[in-house]
Each structure stands twice: as structure tokens, then as C-alpha cells.
Write a structure and sequence with these properties.
With 531 residues, the chain is an alpha/beta fold. The chain folds into three domains: 133 residues, no CATH class; 258 residues, Rossmann fold (3-Layer(aba) Sandwich), CATH 3.40.50.300; 81 residues, no CATH class. The chain has 17 helices and 13 strands. The chain has a seven-stranded parallel β-sheet with strand order 7-8-6-9-10-5-11, sandwiched between helices. Strands 4-3-13-12 form a four-stranded antiparallel β-sheet. Strand 9, helix 14 and strand 10 form a beta-alpha-beta unit. The two termini are 38 Å apart.
Amino acid sequence: MSTIKLQNIRQSEGLLEELAPLKHKLEERINLKSYSENVKPVSLSYNLLQRISLSAGLSIKEKRKLADIDQVVISKTGLRIHETTFARFNLSDLWSSLLKLRYHHLNIDWTSPVIKSKVINYEMQRGKDLLMQEGNIEEWLTISDVRGGGSGYGEIPLLNLTIGSYEDDIPALINLNGRKIPNTQIIVAGATGSGKSNLLAVLINEIRTLTIESSYPVNFLLFDYKGEFSDPANSEWLPLFEVDESAILDPIKAPLPFTPFRDFTGRTQNEINLYASEMAIALIAIDRARISANMNNRLSEAVINAYHKSHNKPITFQAILQCYTELQPERDQEKDDSVKSVLKQLIRNNLFAQEDSVDLIKNSFIIKMDGYPKDGPLAKAIVFFIISKLNTIYEKLPKQAVSDECVEIRHFTIIDEAHYMLDFDNKPLRELIAVGRNKGLSIILATQNMDSFKSKFFDFYANAQYPLLMKQQSIADGVIKDLYGVSGNEFNEIKEAISNLQLGELIIKNPTAAALGMGKKFKKIKVSHVI
């Protein structure tokens, strides 16, 4: 008999919830009771948890019964057990052999995805029950750890994301980090109710699942404008992204644990001067304040003076306000103008801490944004200054690692409702895309209408490897023509395809057709359902 191919294995109904008590018990056993500051306890990935449960289940020697297997209910959401669960440490052949050993007396169709899924989930559930019995976890933890060779720790994981299926249930893959892929930028356009949030969840789940157990884990920072991902009612989503509640940062409850300002210790005055000019433009842009040239110059000088007083250490909005006021004519110092109004809003809401206490790249975070008006200055300030902060961190990183097959990806920034950050000259966002190209850093932008991605300031379509178009409220003809290079019947065909998209469907460019100059220029995908 040939090797059993452990691919396209679906999860059973409620599998992650069933494994949660085992996860808690294992973490309780292997973690210390307390840790020093900035040291986090170990959190087991669900890949590892599923593999542990599977190995425990297959260790049970008693004969299996088809009636028990048939009782397993496969989840209707289509959530899969990732192939990396079985491929880790080159153990695929071992899993295949163990399955054949335990099921040799039964007539099992190992080519059937449904049957294989039921068997795997059955073994995981039995393994979980075994390990939850008194004393069994301790026994398993004392077994020597002998790692296999090959595609294990140390190798860059290939990010070939399965986001859904084409027609005839063919898996739909997007390759993010293959050597021939120009960049990893993803843009998503979809109206309210099109399935945009679920698509973002699928992308994050795939990226995290494929990398969390490797030596190159990909972390993320998600700006959660609608508050869906940070809602306590949706806490069951968090394990899909290999994070817990500690990843949620709510600036209404506590300042974000880092300063938005650069540290210029040991840097030149010219660098500070340039940064001061950019900061003045930013503070004005986020509130669309109309100011005079004198006010703009005064604001830039206030930033410079604040750095002088701090000896080039990171400054604060309060320090800028104080220096700005000192530069005003004495008769105006008690009055508020547009600049002071913006600064006072930022000070009053205490959005940021005065020093860094977390690493934005080496951890994953969800920024809760639904407490602020989406198009207001505070929401824009949060996104603007955090992206500026990320750029500062990115600049200091070495180039991404490269293998024969793929390149390293370190981090994704994900902005839902991104149109609020695209309608002005957002220099940090443009810089993030430029700087990230050779540093293993990327971005996912999601917005409601496709035309939001192209403005007089920047063409995000031209810089995106994967434009993913979902149901639209209005279809921008110019964008379709530019994006697909079509006219006439081909243009009408794509426009009709977008109009007919249903919940959870999208169209993506067909690179094969574009290269050959024949066939449809697009493909339709039914996105996997995970939330």
C-alpha cells in the first residue's frame, strides 16, 4: 500500500474547544508559577497540541471500530488541520505507518478526504482523553525528545496559503514568499457583508499556522477598526491566530505600551530637523487642520526644541505643546489655535506610553480601535504613529534571510477599513511598503471600495502582489482596466463577475492567462470559512 497522504484533513466540530483543557493542563505543567518582567510563559501552538494528541491516540493498541469513526462530525466551516501538523520533522511516513498499523483490520478508503478526516480527528480525541487521565501527562513529558531531520527548525517555511477553493473544490493557493514572487503586499476590497473580515481571519490563520512552530514565526499587528477581533464575545477566534487575550491592546483602557517618537541619541541635528518637518505635516494631516505657514514653522521648531530639552531622547506630545506655546507671541499663549487643539486632544486621550515595554515585531498584537470615530483624528493618530514606529524598527533590522525556495517573512501589518488612512499623503504607509520589501515585512490593506487604493498620493494596486476583489457597492471601471489590462468583452466579463460575487467569494488575477495571452484574466475563489 502506498503512503497515506495527509492533506486536506478537515477538523471535527469543536475540535479546538475539546483540546483546550489539554492545552491548559500541559501549559500549567511546563510553565513556572511566575516570570520576570517581559518574559512570557510558553503557549503551545494548536499544531503541536494536535500532533501530541494524535501521537497519544495512535499509541492506544485496542482495535478500532468503524461505528465509532462514523460518529465523528466534521465541521461545516471547512477549517482544516494544517499539513504542517503531519509534515513537521519529516514524520509524514511515520504517521502513515501508524495509521496502517492501527487500522489494518478494517477496510478503510485512505483516498477519501472525509474518511481520513474522521480517522485523524477520532485519534486526536482519544489521545486527548488519554492524556487528561491522572498521571499520563507526566509520563509523556518524561519521554526523551528525539527530533527528526529535514524540514524542521532552522528552515524558512514556505508561505503557500490555502485561502479557499476554485471550482470543483480545487484548493486555491497564494504564494507569499517564493523566490519568484516580487512582493507580499495584499489588498482586499469588499463591501460590508462581503466576507472581508473572514478573509482576513483566513489569511492570518494560514500565516500563523504555517510558521508558528518554525524558527521563522511570522507575527502580525492588526488595526481592528470594527472591534470584531478584539471583542471578548469572539475570544474563540484568538486560538486561530495563535494568540490570547494579552495580544489585545485597548488604548482607551491603558496607553499603548510604546512611545510613538524616535530616539535620536547619537544622531545628527539634520535628522532631527527633517523628522520635525515630517512630524508637523503629520499632526496637521490627521486632523486636516488649516494652519498658516507661521504655525507650521512654529510646530516644526517646537519638535526640535522638545528634542533639545530631552537630549535627543523620545519626546512627548506634552513637551511639543509646551515648546509650541513658548514660541507663540506672549499675547497668544493663553489662546488655542488649530495646532494646540490637535496636541491637546492627543494629550487628553493619553494614547501612548512614554517608553517602549513591548517589541512590536517579535510579538503579535490586535489594536482595538472601535472606541474612536473611524475618520476622526484619534483613530488616524493611532494608525499613523504606530506605522511610523514600525518604520523606525524596520530600518534597524538586517535583510531578510533567503533559501533556495523562498525568502523570510517577519511581520505583517493589517489595516482593516484602510480607506480612512488612504485619503491623504500618508508618508509612513508608503515608506512601510518601500522599506519592507527587503526586510521581510509586509502589509494587508482592506477597504470597502476598490477605487480607494488609487489616489493622487499613491497607487497601492501597482504595489500589490495580490489584489483580492470581493462584492462591491460600486465598481470602478478605471481600476478594472488598469488592474487587468482589459477592454471590450474581457472588461465586461470581469465587471459582471464582480457584480455576481456572493458572500465569501472573490476574484483574483490569473497570472497564467496573463502570461500566455489567452484564457480568462481572473479566477473566482470561494473563501474558507473560519469565523
